[in-house]
Design brief:
By secondary structure, the chain is an alpha+beta fold. 40% of the residues lie in helices and 23% in strands. It has a six-stranded mixed beta sheet with strand order 1-2-6-5-4-3, sandwiched between helices.
Length: 220
């Protein structure tokens, strides 16, 4: 995945799920006056394994002597119960295998554990993050939750309006190319403010009305 383009950060907290170029992303965010929360992915196997091992060890030993914070939240609704535990560790000078020095401004590690119960069935997931923020489980947990809310909302739009989950593009780069085109189309539709209606309705209108389509892409 290419590095995200980060502009006008202005002291905000930026949560990024990108799998590549993360050290460059971290530096750009710091240069812009912001703080980063970066998800550790499978392509950073050494760092991810080290952080997993660290949290497994500290959970087993009750974070004895370790600078850390933690939060617990429970949400209920629509027959679903979600329990989220967030643990954040500071003091990272001697975390073996993490290569602390390669991450600019790195100050904390965070694990988010989510347990979902739906109709008597339970699933759990753990995700791991590195951050330039101090070890504040509430602030980092809220940042991660906000990011996932945006991602889930976007996924819902792409699935319901563009039927992305049903796409069968698999050859070469066709899947990523088509995904980029759908996002491009979504952005064009969102920018069109002269016509009332839903994103789905505007998309249909663009297919039916050539003049409206040309107006959407700026040729009208």
């Amino acid at each position: 995945m290419k590095c995200s383009k980060l502009l006008d950060i202005g002291g905000s907290i930026v949560t990024v799920d990108a799998m590549g170029c993360q050290t460059d992303i971290a530096q750009k965010i710091l240069d812009g006056g912001g703080d980063y929360v970066l998800a550790l992915k499978g392509n950073q196997k050494g760092s991810l394994d080290s952080v997993k091992y660290l949290f497994d060890w500290e959970l087993k030993n009750g974070f004895d002597g370790v600078s850390h914070t933690e939060t617990l939240s429970v949400e209920k609704g629509h027959g679903r119960i979600e329990t989220r535990k967030v643990y954040s560790i500071g003091g990272l000078d001697n975390v073996e295998g993490l290569e602390v020095g390669k991450w600019p401004g790195l100050s904390s590690l965070t694990m988010v554990e989510s347990v979902r119960e739906i109709n008597g069935s339970s699933t759990s997931e753990r995700r791991y993050y590195i951050s330039s923020l101090e070890a504040n489980a509430k602030i980092i947990g809220d940042s991660v939750r906000s990011h996932w809310g945006i991602e889930n909302s976007l996924h819902w739009v792409m699935d319901v309006t563009f039927h992305e989950d049903y796409a069968r593009n698999r050859k070469d780069n066709s899947a990523s190319n088509m995904s980029a085109m759908r996002h491009f189309a979504l952005n064009l539709i969102k920018q069109e403010k002269n016509t009332k209606g839903s994103i789905k309705g505007k998309r249909k209108r663009a297919g039916w009305n050539d003049n409206y389509l040309l107006n959407l892409i700026g040729w009208g």
